[in-house]
User: Which sequence fits this backbone?
């Protein structure tokens, strides 16, 4: 399950039947995607004197600009089926995604966004207008604005309707950024809202299941929420569970920081409709994307204060402490189900609804 | 499922951790009385899901092993059966099947591969959806590649008895579980002390079905549901039988399962299908465990209607290393396979157990396998 569903399969330039092709799994946020990024990009681009560079594979990069400031840059392309879904659309997704990636680095005041639209010929202009209007609204919500952009039109059939790339830039005080690998043993893990809403509702809509109007995407900018949390206490690491969901980001955080994570399943907020739809579809809410939720590690003495700060904001009213950073099982996440314990492994590839 | 027989039944009570603790204490006590290791086999992907998902193996007594047997209809579908479906698709017919079946490798290719090469293969959610496609495409032959145990064979039967279009036919790979349990119970190195029987299947067939089995093979069986408490409770009842050295049968899932099962569905099932002997992938040739269309319905049988030319190409050499057969016979766990999670993943499966959402390998990969926690 991902928002990259329509990237399509790349053709190999030479006629080499041994050449591996890009598959949907490479875009699904799992281990195959990590390998692809490593081989395509990390191995090619030189390390700079960045505070956080490409090789960190964090939500954005952090480069010092003078002795006191660093600039945070992030970029993301968005493709989603359907374009308009319950709770949002591709425009809202594009702005929120980039604003949130900046925020995950601790940069909660976006300086500027860029927007590049790639449109399939034959797409009604009103569709594109609806999308850009929705981008404007999301910008307003986030206190951001688009300062430059680009528009390309592709032939009909050469792509699926509309793709949006957004880049975000922000400035943070030097050393004031939050890496995703900063958690240490003893920290508490907090999630800012119910998980799985975006992925499960999109999947239900795509598969044509009607679970009533209650199921909708959570897509929203959360920079204000992050700001409130950072003001209330020491946030040591942050990530938003987009592709691959909660299971993936927790595993990434654990392995990057060389710590273990224990999660109490019962304490993870999941909305009623999401959990029942998940059961029907045979998909774990922990394995699918959220677009308006943050997972943060917080110094344990600050955990209550951060939790309260999150809950004071309507976007964070379901926030909860879900677990601990521990010394055991380094690099792995263990879920206490209330009955027994098991690993919470990252999902492999695309999440498909159960058929049998 | 969720056909609560008793009114006022609250699903949540089957997820009560306190009850779970009482039951695990009970299991420990029973194991102490038995005084030696016990091997229990279940035969249902949904049981494996429940056990893995709720982390139940981490709270079971150490010397109680619970393994999945031939419990996934997709996994036990034999490669030549997939080859037949592929051959029909390559002849230009519309082949429909369940999504789980779509990527199961045949000898040379899967239906997904055939579709990539241009064949018309469509994923459906039900047999009736396949029949609808036949209705919409009267000029094409539409074949339903039907897999599944009793639970899914019954709806296939229902479609065939309700006068489907002429251009509709069924390539049956439906299977019938009890004879497979018999074969596994007899395997010398499998060594099963008791069976946890599948609650879903029993809603159709009724638990009475296992009466003969229990007697003949002198092995106890308990029909269990799929909530954590259901599973733990059924295991406790099974351990009681084992302690008493009694080949008993108990229905520990009365809110869904009766002795007779769903009588009309059963009648329909046996009107449409006969049993025949056939190979279950990786396990053995099992007598009377494959469901084929009966004479009255032979005109809807794809094997009767078409001359299926199966050309088994070279099997992927990796499949030689796949130990699905041992896993389904309860002799091995997925992480004993050298390919598990490395060469064999849900995206690029080597064996069928990694394809189906009911397959042990896929479930273990998803829920982190054997917890050593
Ligand atoms: S069909 Fe249902 S009862 Fe039978 S094995 Fe599959 S999940 Fe279990
Ligand atoms: S991991 Fe793959 S190859 Fe190994 S037994 Fe399972 S399905 Fe077969």
Assistant:
């Amino acid at each position: 399950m991902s928002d990259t569903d329509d990237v399509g399969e790349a053709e190999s330039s030479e006629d080499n039947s041994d050449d591996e092709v890009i598959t949907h799994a490479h875009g699904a946020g799992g281990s195959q995607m990590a390998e692809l990024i490593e081989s395509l990009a990390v191995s090619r681009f030189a390390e700079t004197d960045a505070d956080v560079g490409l090789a960190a594979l964090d939500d954005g990069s952090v480069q010092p600009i003078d002795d006191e400031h660093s600039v945070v840059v992030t970029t993301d392309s968005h493709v989603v089926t359907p374009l308009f879904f319950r709770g949002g659309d591709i425009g809202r997704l594009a702005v929120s995604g980039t604003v949130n990636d900046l925020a995950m680095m601790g940069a909660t005041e976006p300086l500027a966004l860029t927007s590049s639209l790639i449109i399939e010929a034959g797409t009604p202009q009103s569709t594109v207008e609806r999308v850009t209007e929705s981008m404007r609204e999301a910008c307003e919500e986030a206190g951001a604005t688009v300062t430059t952009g680009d528009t390309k039109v592709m032939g009909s059939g050469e792509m699926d309707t509309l793709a949006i790339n957004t880049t975000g830039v922000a400035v943070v005080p030097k050393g004031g950024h939050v890496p995703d690998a900063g958690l240490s043993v003893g920290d508490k893990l907090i999630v800012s809202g119910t998980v799985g809403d975006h992925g499960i509702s999109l999947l239900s809509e795509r598969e044509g299941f009607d679970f009533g109007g209650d199921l909708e995407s959570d897509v929203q900018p959360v920079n204000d929420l992050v700001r409130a949390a950072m003001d209330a206490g020491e946030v040591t690491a942050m990530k938003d569970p987009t592709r691959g969901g909660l299971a993936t980001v927790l595993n990434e955080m654990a392995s990057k920081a060389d710590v273990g994570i224990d999660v109490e399943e019962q304490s993870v907020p999941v909305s009623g409709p999401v959990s029942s739809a998940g059961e029907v579809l045979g998909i774990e809410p922990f394995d699918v994307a959220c677009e308006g939720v943050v997972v943060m590690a917080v110094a344990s003495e600050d955990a209550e204060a951060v939790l309260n700060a999150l809950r004071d904001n309507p976007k964070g009213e379901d926030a909860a402490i879900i677990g601990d950073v521990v010394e055991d099982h380094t690099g792995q996440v263990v879920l206490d189900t209330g009955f027994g314990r098991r690993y919470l492994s990252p999902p492999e590839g695309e999440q498909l609804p159960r058929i049998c | 499922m969720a056909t609560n027989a008793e009114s006022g039944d609250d699903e949540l009570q089957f997820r009560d951790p306190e009850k779970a603790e009482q039951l695990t204490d009970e299991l420990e006590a029973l194991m102490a009385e038995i005084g030696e290791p016990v091997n229990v086999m279940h035969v249902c992907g949904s049981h494996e899901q429940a056990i893995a998902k709720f982390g139940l193996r981490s709270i079971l007594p150490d010397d109680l092993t619970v393994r999945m047997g031939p419990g996934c209809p997709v996994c036990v579908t034999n490669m030549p059966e997939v080859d037949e479906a592929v051959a029909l698709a390559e002849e230009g017919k519309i082949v429909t099947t369940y999504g789980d079946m779509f990527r199961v490798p045949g000898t040379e290719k899967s239906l997904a591969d055939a579709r990539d090469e241009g064949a018309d293969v469509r994923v459906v959610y039900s047999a009736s959806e396949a029949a609808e496609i036949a209705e919409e495409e009267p000029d094409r032959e539409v074949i339903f590649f039907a897999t599944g145990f009793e639970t899914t064979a019954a709806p296939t039967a229902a479609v065939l008895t309700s006068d489907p279009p002429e251009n509709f036919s069924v390539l049956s790979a439906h299977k019938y579980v009890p004879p497979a349990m018999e074969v596994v119970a007899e395997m010398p190195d499998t060594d099963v002390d008791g069976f946890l029987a599948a609650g879903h299947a029993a809603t159709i067939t009724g638990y009475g079905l296992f009466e003969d089995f229990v007697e003949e093979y002198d092995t106890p069986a308990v029909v269990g549901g799929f909530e954590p408490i259901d599973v733990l409770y059924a295991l406790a009842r099974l351990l009681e039988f084992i302690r008493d050295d009694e080949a008993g049968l108990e229905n520990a899932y009365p809110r869904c399962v009766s002795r007779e099962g769903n009588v009309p569905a059963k009648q329909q099932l046996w009107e449409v299908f006969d049993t025949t002997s056939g190979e279950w992938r990786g396990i053995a040739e099992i007598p009377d465990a494959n469901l084929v269309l009966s004479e009255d319905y032979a005109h809807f049988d794809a094997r009767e209607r078409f001359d299926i030319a199966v050309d088994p190409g070279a099997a992927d050499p990796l499949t030689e290393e796949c130990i699905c057969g041992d896993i389904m016979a309860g002799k091995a766990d997925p992480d004993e396979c050298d390919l598990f999670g490395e060469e064999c993943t849900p995206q690029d499966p080597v064996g069928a157990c990694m394809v189906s959402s009911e397959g042990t390998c896929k479930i273990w990969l998803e829920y982190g396998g054997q917890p050593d926690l």
